[in-house]
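We both want to read discrete structure tokens more fluently, so let's practise on a single case. Would you write everything just below, so we can both look at the same thing?
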Amino acid sequence: MNQFHSIRRSVRNSPEKQFFLLSAFWFILIVLLGFGNSFYFRTSPKPLDINLLLHGSLFTIWILFYLTQNILIASRNINLHMLLGKIGVALILLVFISSYYTILYKMSLGNKPFLEAASNLFQIGLGVGAVMISIVYRNRPYFHKRFMFAALVFLTSAGIQRACANLGFAPDSSLVTWLYFAPLIALFLFDLALFKKFTFLSLGLLLFAFLLYYFRVYRIFDTPFGHSVMDLLTKLFIW
């Protein structure tokens, strides 16, 4: 109980801790809305394929890992936060491998359209890349937190699409776009209010994501070169 009160006081006195802790619950909500009926609260008697079960479990652990790390920061347990951070490196690599395998496997079976698979692979790659950058900046909290935040935005993009579909919205609905950008817009506005000026990183992350999304950069895969890359990835991940 004393620990809980300590965390509450720490969070109450730090807008940054409030923002990033709340962001963890946002990402958890997106994942639950997106995959609740197909994974967490599944009612079908048919068991999930082992690769889907493994992928869903690893991704769940990663989302809870993000929440846990924010709680540890709020409780000022920096040593444990740093120790778990080392485990997080291995965890995100497992998430990367299981995600790529699952996406490419579905595509090879004809259960996922080529461009949808390309988009998913692209977003996962962005997310894992952002995690790696955040690790490089682990001793600079401002950069570390924001790159990790951006990583969760990229990694949960498929969850947003599934959540909107479950709510009856089309894949190209404006709701999908708004939900995708909402966390990055919130980060930009938060930094603007906190620092009383435009901050390069939060603005840069928002513009970077917007440009990639607006120009549908993942469509580079829908070229002869892109198809050869996808074929190579399929051979690497699907044996």
